[in-house]
Amino acid sequence: MKNSFFSGKTVPWILLAVGALGFSILLFSHYHAEVGLVGAVTDSSFETEVLKSPEPVLVDFWATWCGPCRMYGPIVDKMAEEYKGKLKVVRVNVDENPQLSQTFHIQAIPTTLLVEKGKVVNTLVGLISEESLKSELTKAFGSL
What 3-state class would DSSP assign to 68? Predict the structure, then answer.
């Protein structure tokens, strides 16, 4: 039994690694949804917060388990800071809001919707760079 996978010092390291991963996901999911200028919207608040918004809206569809979403999150946060007062930036957790995912045919995440006057003017699927996102914002909304 000396060479067993579960012998000796292996188990504590595995438990430590699994625990750290779980804590990181929990910490990130809270950070990703609620930080700063980016609001979280739900199936019930989407119409009021996005479709009836007087300003253009960037909607980030994401999930806590999504690696590319974790890389995209800081880019979305930066857009919220740079375009404060000109662009509303919100997030939709696809696991917690399945109706919105169905309504907008979200099949991959991250997916970004650019919405103006209640209409989706562009849909961006996948992880995109800050420069590409800025370019898409300009195409969709003009100079903000």
Answer: helix
Q: What is d(CA 1, CA 117) in angstroms, rounded to the nearest whole number? A: 67
From 57, 66, 79, 89, the catalytic residue: 66
pLDDT of residue 9: 56
Domain assignments of the chain as residue spans, ordered by start: 34-141
pTM of the full structure: 0.76
For residue 61, the model assigns a pLDDT of 98
Which of 57, 59, 60, 69 has its CA nearest to residue 29? 69
Cα separations (Å) of 34 from 25, 43, 94?
A: 14, 16, 15
**Number of DSSP helices (H) and strands (E) in the chain, helices first:** 5, 5
| CATH number of the domain located at residue range(s) 34-141 in this protein | 3.40.30.10
| Residue 33 is among the residues annotated as catalytic for this protein | no
Residue 143 binned pLDDT confidence (cut-offs 50, 70, 90) = confident
How confident is the model at residue 2, as a pLDDT?
55
Which among 50, 57, 59, 69 is annotated as catalytic? Answer: 69
pLDDT at 6 over 60: no
* Cα–Cα dist 131/13, whole Å: 40
Instruction: Please tell me whether the peptide bond between 110 and the residue prior to it is cis, using omega within 30 degrees of 0.
Output: yes
